[in-house]
């Protein structure tokens, strides 16, 4: 509950949380807040007989190392006006979206109380969704859920029309059993894919990957300093142009060999003197790499053309190159970034976007 209070406080500062698809603070935390004025109307005259006013919050937490998401719902404020039908009026909150690969506890997840009980009693409600390990689609056993919150207010008083609203919130979660293929992460897990995470590279003195960070900074913000060189080069990784993880080893190697070719063409074969290595951005482990972004595919791995690449290859310290690669691998593992379409009919379609930021 301490975590819930912290997330709720943060949630209130973000206008996105008031939208039906909410706001995700991270790949593992999501929240929704809202307010409603529900008028109970006369069926005959259409006049307002009673009113229920409330604010609500719905918080979602992915459970570390588990294919499970916990939800916490609360009416943060609750008031009524009018009165005659309210003691015999029931307000129901229910959550739809459970199924074969994603089960809910309680099942169904819903709570119904008379309006006075909501007003005066406990308004907190918790439930969980679970997806069994190693169930789902593709190499990583991907399963997805869409949990939507609905409300209704119904009275047994005659001549009073009910009130209802569906899909007040829509919470999307993705479950996987990537196991060791994830690299540095838990074998099983769940994330909120609406959140696009950002990997940070440190350009400041003392950084173990300073030269790689400087290279990324040039590629993103001064591409005229980088190779291949051509007019209009624009390197992705920021804003509306995220990168996407590539996990096909053949294509990763093709990206790398294409980038090494650029280093050889520009700096000659001696570029590796003194322990230097050919660094590449976007990374070889992304679909935006030098070969895969210029035509190479699983079925045609030799189809790329590095001279057209919107990226950069440059010799840097081997130690900094290695440290930068390890840093990226940890980020992938911690955020469960996957090439989720592997071994599906959609293999080769990028997924799981992420952004890049250089700290100066």
Structure characterization notes:
With 360 residues, the chain is an alpha+beta fold. It has helices at 2-11, 115-120, 210-221, 249-267, 318-335; strands at 23-26, 29-41, 48-62, 68-81, 89-96, 103-105, 110-114, 124-130, 143-155, 163-176, 189-191, 198-202, 243-244, 276-281, 312-317, 353-359. A 6-stranded antiparallel beta sheet has the order 1-2-3-4-8-6. A 5-stranded antiparallel beta sheet has the order 7-5-9-10-11. It has a 3-stranded mixed beta sheet with strand order 12-16-13. The longest helix has 19 residues, at 249-267. It is elongated, with a radius of gyration of 26 Å. The two termini are 37 Å apart.
Main beta-sheet annotation: 6 strands, antiparallel
- Basic shape: elongated
Largest sheet, order of strands side by side?
Answer: 1-2-3-4-8-6
Q: N-to-C SSE series?
A: HEEEEEEEHEEEEEHEHEEHE
What fraction strand?
25-35%
* Average predicted local confidence, pLDDT: 96
Judged by helices, strands and strand pairing, the structural class is alpha+beta
**How many strands appear in the DSSP assignment?**
16
Discrete helix count: 5
* Low-pLDDT regions: none
What is the terminal separation in angstroms? 37 Å
Please estimate the helix content.
10-25%
Compute the CA-based radius of gyration.
26 Å
